[in-house]
Amino acid sequence: MASVSPARRALAHAPWSAAAWRDTAFVASGVPLQVAAWAILTVPWMVWVPTRVTPVLVLTSASAVLVLLALRPLTSWQRERCWAMLGLDVPRMPAFDDGRPWDALRDLRSPELWRVLRYHLVVGPLIALGGIAVIAAWAAGLACAASATFVWALPPSSALNSKPAAVLTGAGVLLVIAAPWAAAAVRRGDARAAAALLGPDRARELERRVEDLAEKRASVVDAADLERRRIERDLHDGAQQRLVSLALNLGLARETLTGVPDAAMRVIVEAHEEAKEALAELRGLIRGLHPAVLEDRGLDAALSGVAARVPLPVRLRVEVEPRASSTVEAVAYFVVSEALTNVVRHARASAVDIVVTRRGDVLHVVVTDDGRGGADPAGGTGLTGLARRVLSVDGAFRITSPAGGPTTVTVELPCAL
């Protein structure tokens, strides 16, 4: 963004500029609204000043009630003023603005109510003092600057001769030049205070948006898990069954057909072997999508099946009661599965220890191997994807892998999903 030159800035704040008069009009129009709350508090005391305790308490309570009743209309008028004169949209606060004026009497614990009170009783009156100072600067500056126009009509013996008139004129010109800058400063302060105190709390809005995004992300993760399970069922009940039937038919043909030329038999044998390999690959793909045993029997049975297929001694301990959600269980399953794959491919280990336990609302997964160590998530060994899968459910992923081993992958998954 290009900076504005001093000459342009001075011209924009010239006393005859549209911005100067807009800022002055905005500041002046805010003074009555910004002192209205204090006026409501003090006017009853000007009408009647009680001397006994009970009337004092009654009058104080009545003044406070009147201020609370006036908060909604005063706030609405301030927002309309900001929009009409500056084009500044101060959003409504449903927790404060919805309802009737007297509902404020029931919302004394509402943070929105206290933010609005802070504006009308503390910040607003301070801004009003600035607005009064701006009005006084314009009035005094114009009066002093015009003093030279009527000094000639005064008698020679008057104290306001030509020298004091020149001083007053110079002071008036300086005040007129300074008034637009003061009006701009008060306007900026009023706009920021209105946006901060009369609109939604930015911190709470960001917190609410983060919560909404977290809920949406959890919904996306759940939807992806449901889609994987649907694909797994479709492959299991459809393509896998067809391949099983094909492999059976080819096996029967291989065993029962006689008198078939050697070339034709070789084709049948090759087709049978290819069908069995395709069936094995499909079963591995189905397990990778979402193993049916995980949904039916839980993590213990599913991880036992994974450990049994690893060509290494695996010590497995699973203590998960009660069961976590299907999404969390799926993430834990894939963490262990991918970690074991990395151990077999890269670690040169002789044994693996797997511990899966639930403590309160956190599922802990620890995979330790006695391999060569030196595992680096940036090395393309699948650890980066593993960490992303864990973070998708707001989990924590840590890996310790010094050179020479051992390597320990620790994952913590929230079970409250």
Automatic annotation (TrEMBL):
Reaction equations catalysed: ATP + protein L-histidine = ADP + protein N-phospho-L-histidine
Pfam families associated with the record: HATPase_c, HisKA_3, Sensor
Any one GO MF annotation of this record: kinase activity
Keywords, sorted A to Z: ATP-binding, Kinase, Membrane, Nucleotide-binding, Phosphoprotein, Transferase, Transmembrane, Transmembrane helix, Two-component regulatory system
Residue ranges occupied by any Histidine kinase/HSP90-like ATPase domain in the UniProt entry: 327-417
UniProt-listed Enzyme Commission number(s): 2.7.13.3
InterPro entries (UniProt xref): HATPase_C_sf, HATPase_dom, Put_sensor_dom, Sensor_HK_TwoCompSys, Sig_transdc_His_kin_sub3_dim/P
Transmembrane segments annotated in the record for this chain: 25-47, 53-71, 121-154, 166-186
Protein name: histidine kinase
